[in-house]
Design goal:
Helix content is 49%, strand content 13%. It is α/β, with parallel strands linked by helices. Strand 6, helix 10 and strand 7 form a beta-alpha-beta unit. Helix 4 runs parallel beside helix 6 and helix 15 runs antiparallel to helix 16. The chain binds hypoxanthine (HPA) and zinc ion. Hypoxanthine binds next to helix 3. Its cofactor is Zn(2+).
Length: 334
C-alpha cells in the first residue's frame, strides 16, 4: 500500500550492523562487544531508557558519508514497505554538541535523499527537531546555526525527554520557526499529559502532533483534535516497546480512530523498536483486524497530513487510489 511516513527519526534508523560498520570505519569503539550485545540492550522501560542508548549510538556518526549511508539504508527499507514520501526528523544538536558541523549533517542526509530519489523514486524532506531536555537558549542557538540553510529545511519539530519539558518552555523558539515560514510539529502526549498537546497547538502552533496517544485521557482534547483535523503521527511499536501501553491490544489507536482523529501510522525509531512501517502495520492488524476502508483512511491521512503542495498531495493520493482500484477494493468508504 503506498503511504507517507511522517514520524521517523533518522538517528533511530541506525541498525546495529551499520553502527558497528561506522564505528570500525571511524576507528572508534562502541561500549558493546558485538551486534548481539547491542541488541540485547534494547530492553526499554521508558522513553528515557531508550534515549540514553539512542544518543550513545549516534556517536558513530561522524562524516558526511556516514549520514548519507544512514539515510540511504532507511530509504531502501522504507521504499520496500511502499513508502513513497517521507518527512524525516533529524536532531542536529546531538551531533553539533560532539563537534560535527551542522553542514556535514545536513549535506550527508541530503546526499542520501538525492540518491534514494534516484534509486527508488522515494520523496524525502527533512524536519529539524530540537532537543527539549536542553534549554530554550541552546535551541535558539541551534536555530541560528540552521538559519543559513533554511531553504533546505522543510519544517521544525520538538523531541527527546517529554516529562518535565512542556511545549511552553519553547514559545520563543517556535515563534521564530513560524516567522521563518515553516510548518512546526511537536512530540506531545507520548508519556506526557494531554495538556502538553494543548500547549503544542496553542503555544507552539503545531500543525501535527507526534504521538498524541494520551489524548484519550482528556475527552475535550480528543474532541478538539478531531474537530480541528489535527493529524496524530502514531507509532504503535514504539509505544509498546517504551511501555506507553503494556500490549498492542491496549493501545489507544481504536479510540483515536473512533473519535474521528486524523491518525497516521509511523515507525519512530525502527532500528530500536522492532520494525519499519509495515511491521507496525502488521502488529496493528494482528491486534485490531481493521477493514480495508480503515487502511485506506490511514494511508490517505498520511498524504493529507504531509507538508507538500496540494498538487503534490493530489499526485500521491492518486497513487493510493490506483493501488486500491487494482486490488479491487475501490472505491473504499472514506
Ligand atoms: O519517540 C520519541 N520521543 C521523543 N524523542 C524521541 N527521539 C527519538 N524518538 C523519540
Ligand atoms: Zn518520535
Amino acid at each position: 500500500m503506498p503511504k507517507a511516513e511522517l514520524h521517523v527519526h533518522i538517528e533511530g534508523t541506525l541498525e546495529p550492523g551499520l553502527a558497528f560498520a561506522l564505528a570500525r570505519r571511524n576507528g572508534i569503539s562502541l561500549p558493546y562487544a558485538d551486534e548481539a550485545a547491542l541488541k540485547a540492550a534494547y530492553a526499554f522501560d521508558s522513553l528515557q531508557s531508550f534515549l540514553d542508548l539512542y544518543y550513545a549510538c549516534a556517536d558513530v556518526l561522524r562524516t558526511r558519508e556516514d549520514f548519507r549511508d544512514l539515510m540511504l539504508a532507511y530509504l531502501e527499507r522504507a521504499a520496500a514497505d511502499g513508502v513513497i514520501h517521507a518527512e524525516i526528523f533529524f536532531d542536529p544538536q546531538t551531533h553539533t554538541a560532539r563537534g560535527i558541523p551542522f553542514r556535514t549533517v545536513l549535506e550527508g542526509l541530503e546526499d542520501g535523499l538525492a540518491e534514494g530519489a534516484r534509486r527508488w523514486g522515494i520523496g524525502g524532506r527533512l524536519i529539524l527537531c530540537f532537543l527539549r531536555h536542553l534549554s530554550e537558549d541552546e535551541c535558539l542557538a541551534a536555530l541560528d546555526e540552521a538559519e543559513p540553510f533554511i531553504g533546505r529545511i522543510h519544517g521544525f519539530g520538538l523531541d527527546s525527554s517529554e516529562r518535565g519539558h512542556p511545549p511552553s518552555k519553547f514559545a520563543r523558539l517556535f515563534a521564530r520557526c513560524r516567522a521563518l515560514g515553516k510548518p512546526v510539529v511537536a512530540h506531545a502526549g507520548e508519556e506526557g499529559p494531554p495538556a502538553y498537546i494543548t500547549e503544542a497547538l496553542d503555544i507552539l502552533g503545531a500543525r501535527r502532533i507526534d504521538h498524541g496517544v494520551r489524548a484519550v485521557d482528556d475527552p475535550a482534547v480528543l474532541a478538539r483534535l478531531a474537530r480541528e483535523g489535527v493529524a496524530l503521527t502514531v507509532c504503535p511499536l514504539s509505544n509498546t516497546r517504551l511501555c506507553v501501553f503494556a500490549e498492542m491490544s491496549e493501545h489507544s489507536l481504536p479510540q483515536l480512530l473512533a473519535a474521528g482523529a486524523r491518525v497516521t501510522l509511523n515507525s519512530d525509531d525502527p532500528a530500536y523498536f522492532g520494525g519499519y512501517l509495515n511491521d507496525n502495520i502488521r502488529a496493528v492488524q494482528a491486534a485490531f483486524a481493521f477493514d480495508a476502508a480503515t487502511w485506506y483512511r490511514l494511508a490517505r491521512n498520511s498524504f493529507e497530513a504531509s507538508f507538500v503542495t496540494d498538487a503534490e498531495k493530489a499526485g500521491l493520493i492518486g497513487r493510493l487510489d490506483s493501488f486500491f482500484a487494482a486490488a479491487g477494493v475501490y472505491p473504499p468508504v472514506v
